[in-house]
Design brief:
2 copies of one chain form a homodimer.
Chain A (H helix, E strand, L loop, with lengths): L2 E6 L7 E6 L8 H12 L13 E5 L13 E6 L6 E6 L3 H7 L2 E7 L7 E6 L2 E6 L8 H12 L4 E4 L2 H4 L7 E3 L8 E3 L4 H7 L2 E6 L12 H17 L1 H10 L4 H7 L21 H10 L3 E4 L10 E5 L5 E4 L3 H7 L8 H14 L3 H13 L8 H13 L2 H7 L2 H8 L6 E2 L2 E2 L9 H9 L12 H4 L15 H18 L5 H5 L3 H15 L5 H21 L12 H4 L13 H4 L6
Parallel strand pairs in A: 1-6, 7-12
Antiparallel strand pairs in A: 1-2, 3-4, 3-6, 4-5, 7-8, 9-10, 9-12, 10-11, 13-14, 14-15, 16-17
Helix pairs in contact in A: 1-18, 1-21, 6-20, 10-12, 11-13, 12-15, 13-14, 16-18, 18-21
Chain lengths: ~575, ~575
């Protein structure tokens, strides 16, 4: 993982491939790499769909090694959704394979001709060729064509029709172990930028390549052993997530009164039990699917799953908590089959499930359809795939949907939709939504863990006290986790188990021959955040954008009947470390 | 004009009317008043369509007096289009009538119930009542109903269906002398905010009221005499504008190579002669319309006109230069009848002709229809009126249209569409577009006058030298003109004729018993701009938003093959007075 692959899609005689050493980007992986390259090379005021934007795809620092759960792939660019810098990461196989192929980053640059391209990267090198037969295909059909051509040992990174149409909610799909395009770098319209670069799919084949070798293999192996024991022995990562997936959160958040219901109008959803993790797991198992499944080799948490339809045929992967919420309670829908169908369509068209569900909720608020109308919601998603005018509105995200329909209550920060936790009932996540350079994003500093689950300390969800410090520390830690390539869920174990956190640091040190201590690790996270915030500032996104929409201050949320209590002055202190 | 009328549309038992003395707003009129109230009373981060925004309607300081051309009405609020502070002003009769009724401002506040209201203001006071029979009516039918109910001596301020649907391009219409809703406060979505306040129409009747009296009537009359002589004796305000209207600019700007053609791709339009002021005037006269006409009593420039259809029946007022350009050359259309039909539809639906034309140009660039397709453009405008999904996209303005269709070349600043002058060939207007707190707006500092027409000095249109100072001075002067209630066109005379400018200052002084000198007048303009910029900064619109879209720097414009040359550092100096 000692080189960067650049493909200039705008070169005069067709796409031009070049490779270079890491240079300024030595020591960077994942989000540190994507945000490093974007903040250094992309003009902050360029158009996100133009020649000057770059799409950076980077495995984490420990991807492609034997480290458990090191399979996150970061994707970064200037976002067509937020207008700021963006990183989104995905599970699946791609990160491990790309790392073993030796690439610390793929950078797509320039403005292509009218062709649609596929890129093949294997032990022989890199090939790019036009393949217009892929135009308009869903992710499932795209991957099927690639398997047909390149065999079933590959990993794919692809976009669906939404990315080709450059919609601001378009995602980038990565295939899982069964070569299904179900793991998405979902947020911020990454897929639109890949579409704007004219690239439909990147096929990765690491045949002939080996696991990446640490500098100190013994120490590395020993650290990984402690690491795995820490993950498998923890109640959340070793029991709850494997049993019920991320959807284990439905009951917990609903009970806490922070489950945003019908476009953030209430904090409890009467239909929650019908779509909870427990209900879902039971249904999956009864139909011959799976409630426990890893999205990439080397995962020991296995929060993924397989969802079959009523006839026992594969429909989609187990929908995540955020998806079940966005299409479920947020839209007043409590039908697991309908939501699973929406998940399948989202994955196939290549759109972010959170952004899509929140946009539909805003459309419901705007009177376009009724809350609870599952058939109507499915129809809307099909319009996105078809690129009708209405589909293009919804596919442009909740901020645009709200603007176009004249809706006032639009739950976005920096134009990105809020995920499945109401910031009034879980004030710590509100601080993260407001201040992260990424736009409203739970994964950027998951204060829910501490506010609701009692992980990593105990800060009262309903009070502003302590939330700034909590979010600050989590944002710093998360920036590191996102750079190492670790799945964020490791934090449930690492935050409360010092030996587990120590094992992670030991793995980085023994792999790279470093001697980082805790402060040095924190400095990495701070540096990532600083890069991102400086880019945003130059792009016109400053502290005044570090705010929740006014209705979170003005409208008390049942059942706690509470508003967001953290002041603007406090929010401005988050990055004052 | 010594009181402010406030109507709280959200009061518990229906709209609540109150009147108050000017208080903090003494000495303010027009834009100074609207921006004064908005910057002091509206939370910068509120939702533009929510309870906390306010719609302020204010006559200029000299409106309702005998001063020639003092009939501009300012409308202000937080803009649903730009997200920043906004003032748009319109001609027509409303300003004079409202001033004579004694109101320095109408302020609509709060969030209404589901009714649609009409407001009647006359010598007896203020009445507001629900009238849901007005729902969905165009401006023409709305005004016809008001004439039916209140007689033909009134003036109306109204919105069409676009305002009711809260579209970000919705305008507010004022009636002209013939009671046609043809003079619009067009820019920035003012009509959406009036719609969000639940007000369809304000009917003004000044029967029994008299012309406003100056403190020093003799001096005032004498100053107005010099003023009128200055306007009627000037080549532009006394000859060109009366003969050909604002459309006299088509040939001039096309000749200068700064006529933005087919979505700002070229600077000269091959069809310009077909839609020029000269051609239009000839056609209007031949069909029994008028090429010379005043939009309000007391206008001595008379740049307005009447456009008849092929059968000699009234179709619309003489379309303005900006309209002819936006729907014409900007869309590759050179058919006067088609453009006049679009103008009529725009006025009736209540949408900004500039924003609408630029949005259609962006849609053409996005492949939705072909450049030159006049029938397609008319159909699109009808979709806006009908509120179809596609119509809602276009009606949301060019920035949203570009985002939804994935178009990169979108000519907006602060999300507001650029008017009819390419900033590459007329660099001074580019400085105004970039830096005015209003979003891309030619009227905020009309550097075209100096760059192209040689009015107010001579600064080379193609070079950056001198443009900052030019735009700065014009922006300051314009803020004053907009506050006095004067039509901006008086500047053609006032900039080059010291005695004409002096007469304007004398009128303000003799009317109010003041002794303002030139510096004091400039300070008024600076104070308006400072208020507006501070509001914007708190709303998250800072110096990084004082920029043109990247393609104006990257893409040379034929025929001069020049890019925008003013640097970011220079732009940041505009308000450094």
């Amino acid at each position: 993982m000692d080189k960067i692959l650049r493909i200039n899609m705008g070169a005069e005689n067709g796409p031009q491939i070049s490779e270079e050493p890491l240079g300024d980007y030595v020591g960077m992986g994942g989000r540190a790499m994507t945000s490093g390259i974007v903040s250094k090379e992309v003009p902050p005021l360029c158009h996100p769909l133009g020649a000057d934007n770059k799409l950076v795809i980077a495995p984490g620092l420990l991807s492609g090694t034997l480290a458990a759960n090191s399979g996150r792939l970061s994707v970064g660019c200037k976002s067509p959704l937020t207008g700021g810098i963006k990183e989104a990461n995905a599970g699946g196989q791609a990160s491990q394979v790309l790392a073993r192929l030796g690439y610390a980053a793929i950078v797509l640059e320039g403005k292509p001709d009218d062709n649609l391209y596929k890129i093949l990267i294997n032990a022989d090198g890199v090939k790019i060729e036009a393949d217009n037969s892929l135009k308009g295909l869903g992710n499932y059909d795209t991957v099927a064509k690639m398997i047909n051509a390149y065999g079933d040992k590959v990993a794919c990174i692809s976009i669906g029709p939404a990315g080709e149409m450059k919609m601001a909610s378009a995602s980038i799909a990565c295939t899982d172990m069964e070569l299904r395009p179900t793991r998405h770098a979902g947020r911020g319209g990454m897929g639109a930028v890949m579409g704007a670069k004219g690239v439909k799919v990147i096929v990765l084949d690491d045949a002939g390549k080996k696991m990446r070798k640490p500098k100190d293999p013994e120490k590395y192996k020993a650290a990984n052993k402690i690491w795995v024991a820490g993950l498998t022995g923890n109640a959340i990562t070793g029991e709850a997530l494997p049993s019920f997936g991320t959807n284990v959160m439905t009951n917990a958040i609903n009970e806490a009164g922070g489950y945003p219901t019908r476009n953030f109008s209430e904090g409890r959803f009467e239909g929650a039990a019908n779509i909870s993790g427990e209900t879902q797991a039971e249904l999956e198992i009864a139909r011959g699917g799976k409630a426990t499944h890893g999205c990439h080799r080397g995962c020991v948490i296995k929060c993924s799953g397989i969802f079959h339809d009523k006839d026992g045929n594969y429909l989609t992967k187990q929908p995540e908590y955020e998806t079940l919420w966005a299409h479920g309670g947020n839209c007043g829908i409590d039908d697991l089959d309908a939501i699973a169908m929406m998940d399948r369509l989202d994955d196939d068209f290549g759109i972010d499930t959170i952004e899509t569900g929140v946009s539909i909720g805003v459309a419901m608020e705007g009177g376009l359809l009724e809350f609870g109308d599952a058939e109507g919601a499915i129809k809307l998603i099909k319009e996105i795939g078809a690129g009708t005018p209405l589909g293009r509105i919804i596919g442009s995200g909740a901020a645009v949907t709200g603007q176009v329909l004249g809706v006032e209550r639009v739950p976005v920060v920096k134009k990105q939709s809020m995920p499945a936790y109401d910031p009034r009932a879980i004030q710590g996540i509100g601080v993260t939504y407001a201040t992260t350079p990424q736009g409203a994003d739970h994964t950027a500093g998951y204060a829910v863990a501490t506010n609701v689950l009692g992980v990593g300390g105990d800060v009262d969800a309903l009070k502003p006290v302590g939330q700034i410090e909590l979010s600050r520390n989590l944002q710093i830690t998360t920036a590191v986790v996102d750079s190492v390539g670790m799945c964020l869920f490791i934090a449930f174990a690492a935050l409360d188990q010092p030996e587990t956190f120590g094992a992670l640091v030991d793995m980085v040190n023994s792999f790279y021959g470093l001697e980082l201590d805790g402060d040095a690790v924190a400095a990495i996270g701070q540096s990532v955040l600083t890069n991102e915030r400086e880019f945003n500032k130059k792009a016109g996104i400053g502290p005044e954008d570090d705010r929740l929409p006014a209705f979170f201050q003005n409208e008390p949320l049942p059942p706690h009947n509470i508003t967001f209590q953290v002041t603007d002055e406090e929010l401005d202190e988050v990055f004052n470390w």
